[in-house]
Amino acid sequence: MMLEVRGLCAFYGQSQALHGLDFALAEGGIVTLLGANGAGKTTTLRALCGMVRMTGEVRFDGKPITGRATEDIVRLGIAHVPEARGTFVRMTVEENLRLGAMTRRDHSAIAADLDEVYSVFPRLRERRKQQAGTLSGGEQQMLAVGRGLMLRPRMMLLDEPSFGLAPLIVAELFGILRRLNRERQVAMLIVEQNAALALDLAEEAYLLETGRIVMAGPAQEIAKDEAVRRSYLGY
Amino acid sequence: MTMQEHEAVALDTAAVPSEAAIARPLGLWLDRRRLLIGAAVIAGLMAPLVVANFTIFQLTMVMIYGLAILGLNLLTGFNGQFSLGHSAFYGIGAYTAAILMSGSAELSYYWTLPCAGAVCFVVGILLGLPALRLQGLYLALATFALAVALPQLLKSHVLEGLTGGVQGIVIDKPDPPLGLPINADQWLYYFTLAVLLVMFAAAAGLVRSRTGRAIMAIRDHPIAASAMGINTARYKTLTFGVSALYTGVAGALGAIVVQFVAPDSFSFLLSVNFLVGLIVGGIGSIPGSLFGGVFVLFVPNIAEKVSTGLSGAVYGIILLLLIFLMPSGAAGFVRRTAAWLARLRHTSTRGGA
Amino acid sequence: MEQLLQQVVAGLATGAIYATMALAVVMVYQAIDHLNFAQGELATFSTFLAWQMIEWGWSYWAAFAMTVAISFVIGIAIDRVLFRPVRNAPILSQLVAFIALFSILNSSDGEIWNFTIKTFPTPFGTKPLFGSGLISTHQAGMVAVTLVMLALLYLFFRGSRLGLAMRAAAANPEAARLVGIRVGWMIALGWGLSTAIGAVAGMLIAPIVFLDPNMMLGVLLYGFAGAVLGGLSSPGGAVFGGFAVGIIENLAGTFIPFVGQELKLTVALIVIVAVLMVRPAGIFGQVAVSRV
C-alpha cells in the first residue's frame, strides 16, 4: 500500500472535524472520497499534508508522515492540488509550472517535463507567458494539475477538480487524469462532489459524513447501490 | 475556510472579540466584573487622599493617557482603522485648551474640554473622509504624516502668534472650586476621574449599541457589512471623529494638568506610545485602555531606573516579554485565563458526575 | 532655470539615500507583509560596525564587505529568533516587536558607541563631479550603487530559482508550501537581504549626514514615504519613489516661500498622501483585486 491511514482525526481549534478515518491507497491506484458539503473531504486532504492539526497514523510508503511540515511531506512526492487551485496569480503560467518543480535538481529532466505538460495541456502552452490570474477557471485548474505533475509525484491529492468547470472541460480533465494514472502510475486520491464522475474514474470509494466514513467499497458497487445513491449522492 | 473552521478559529485564538465572544467564557464573571469595577472606583476615590502630590499627578496622567488610548482604541481596536496620528489630536486638544485659557478669551478650564472635543471631532471627520480611500499601511502613512506635521506647524512662523512657537504656552493651575478642603492636585485628580468615568461609560455604551456593532462589523467584514446595508463610509468617518474627540479631550486635560504645552511634546513618538499602550492593554478592550495608560506612564520610568544608559534597551526587552507572554495584550490575557478557569470548572463538574 | 536644475540634481542625490532605504523596506515587506520599523536602526547598527572595523585598521572595502555579510546574518537571526515566534500574533502585536527592536538597537548604539558625531569615510571622494557644481563624486557614487543594487536584485528575483521561490513564498505562502518551498526560510532570507541592503544604505549615507545613533530616524521616514509612493509591491517603484521624495522635498523647500526648512518633510508627506488618494496602491504598485 502506498498510503495507509488509520484513526485520522483533525481539529480546527477546539472543534473536531474528522473522527477516526481509516482508508488506504494502493500503488498506482485511484481512490475517491465522496460526501456532501462539510463532510470533511477537504479537511482530510489538508490533514494528510499537515495543514491542519491532526492525530492518528498516516504512512506513506510504510513510513509515518504524521506531524511533519507540509513542505517536507510534499518533498516525498505527494502533489496536492488544492480546492482553490493555489495559483500564483501574478506570475506567468510558465513560472507557475516551474514552481511545481522547485524541489527537483535534475534541470534537463525538468525542461523535458515542462514540454510534456504542455503537450498534455496545449492550452497552457499557448498562454505560457501570460499572467496566471488572467486564465479562465478551467485553464487554472489545468495549470494546477500541471503544476502538480511537475513535481513528478508518486501520489496526487486532488480537491474537487471539477469545481466550477463546464462539463466539457471536466470530461477533458478527467480523461487526462485517467491517462496519467495509466501511463505514469501516478496514484490519485480524489475528493469530489460530482459523484458520478468520480465513481467512473476511481477503483475504490469512501463515503464521508460529518467527519466519519460511513461506507467503503469498490467504486462500481457503490455506484450501483440505489439506496446509497439516493441518500448520499443525491441522484 | 468553512463556517466550521472559521467559528472555531475565532473562539480559540481570542482574536479581537465581538461582544458575544466576551460574554460566553466570562458568563460566570459578569457579576464579579461589576464588583471589581466598583472596588476599583472606590480605590480610585480614596487614592489621592493617601498618597503624595507627585504620585497624584502621575495617577492623573495615567487616567489621561488611558483616555487618549481609549480614543485610539475606538478607531483602531473597534473599527480597524490604523492610526499613527493620534499624537496630533492630543496636541490639538492640548493647544486648544491652552490658547483658550491664556489668550484673550480667558476661558475657564472646564469649558475648554468640550471646545477641545469639538475642534478635534471636526478635524477627525475632515481626516476621516480622505481616509476612506486608504487602507492599512497607506492609512498608517497618512496619519503618520499628520503626526509629523503637527509639531512643525506649531513651531512655524506662520502660526507663531497663536501658538507661541517653540516656546509654547504656560497655563495657570486651576484652584479647587467652592473652597473644598483639598489641594489643586487632588482636585484635578477628581475632575479627571469624573471625566474619565463619564467618557469610559459612554464608550462602553457606544460599543454595546447598534452603532457599536456596525462599527465592529466594518472592522471584521467590511464587504459583508456594506452588503448588509451598513453605510460604511458614514460610520468610519464618524468613528474617526469620535476617536479624535476622545484623544482631544485627553489632550486638553493633559495641558491643564501639566500647565504647559510645547510643540515637541506632541511628536510622533507620542503616537507610538499610544499605540504601544493600546496593544499592551488589549485591542478592543475598554478597561485595557486604562492598563495601557499605566504602562505608558510607568514602564519607561522603570526602565530608566534599571539602567540609565540602556533604558531604551530595557524598555524594548520589557515590551518583547509582554508580547511573547501576552500576544493579545493584558485584556486578552485576562480573557484567556478566565476562559481556562471556566473550562476547568466545567470539566471538573462533568468528570465528577 | 539653473537653480531649478541644481535643486533637482541635489534632490536626486538625497533621493538616492531614500531610494536605497526604500528598497530595503520593500524587500522586507515583500517577504513578511509588514513594514520593518526597525530598519533604520539596523542600518545604523551596521554602519557603526563598519566604523569600528575601520577604526581597528581594516581597509574600507574589507570593512564594507564584512559588514554586509554580518548584517545579512543578523537579519536572518532576528527573524528566526524574534519574529518567528510572533508570526501568528495579531498584526498590531507584531508591530510592538518592531518597536521593541527599534528601542533596543537605538539605546545599545548609544551605549556602545556614545552620541558624539563621527565621520565616516567614502570611497568615492568628495570632489565635485566633473568639476561642475551640481553634485559631488560621492553623491554620484551613491546613485550608481543604488542603481547597481537594483539591477542585481532584479536579476536575482526574475532570473534565479531562489528568487522565484522567494516571490512565491511572499505571494501565496500556502501554495508555496504545496510545492515544497520552505516558506519560513524564505522569509528569513528576505530579512537577511533587507538588512544587508540597509547596511549599504547606512554606509552610503553616513559620510553626508555623519554617524550617530539617531542618524537614520529621518531617513527611514523618507524611505517609507518613498516606498509607499512608488508602490510596496514594486522594488523599482520604491527606488523611483525614493528619488521622487528627495526631489519634491528639495523643490518644496527652495521654491515655496513659507515652507523653508521647517516644513519640508510635511510638504513631502502631504504630496505623497495626495498621490495615494489618486492611486491608493502607489504609482507603480499593483492593485490587489479582491474577489468578493
Describe the structure.
The complex is a heterotrimer of chains A (235), B (353) and C (292). By secondary structure, chain A is α/β, with parallel strands linked by helices. Chain A is built from 10 helices and 10 strands. In chain A, the strands form 2 sheets. A 6-stranded mixed sheet of chain A has the order 6-7-8-3-9-10, sandwiched between helices. A 4-stranded antiparallel sheet of chain A has the order 2-1-4-5, covered by helices on one side. In chain A, helix 3 (93-100) runs parallel beside helix 6 (137-149). Chain A starts with a strand and ends with a helix. With 353 residues, chain B is mainly alpha-helical. Chain B has a domain at 19-175 and 183-267. Chain B contains 16 helices and 2 strands. Chain B has helices at residues 3-12, 19-26, 30-50, 53-77, 86-102, 109-131, 136-155, 160-163, 184-208, 210-220, 222-227, 232-258, 268-281, 286-306, 311-325, 329-352, and strands spanning 169-170, 260-261. The two termini of chain B are 37 Å apart. Chain C is mainly alpha-helical and 292 residues long. Chain C has one domain (2-216). Chain C contains 11 helices and no strands. Chain C has helices at residues 2-32, 39-55, 60-83, 91-113, 137-159, 161-171, 173-178, 183-209, 216-230, 235-255, 264-278. In chain C, helix 2 crosses helix 9. The mean pLDDT of chain C is 84. Chain B binds chain C through residues 15-16, 76, 130, 133-135, 137-138, 140-142, 144-145, 148-149, 152-153, 155-158, 223, 272, 275-276, 278-280, 283, 309-317, 319-320, 322-324, 327-329, and chain C through 35, 82, 85-86, 89-90, 92-93, 95-97, 99-104, 106-108, 110-111, 221, 224-225, 228, 232, 258, 262-263, 265-266, 269-270, 272-273, 276-277, 280-281, 292.
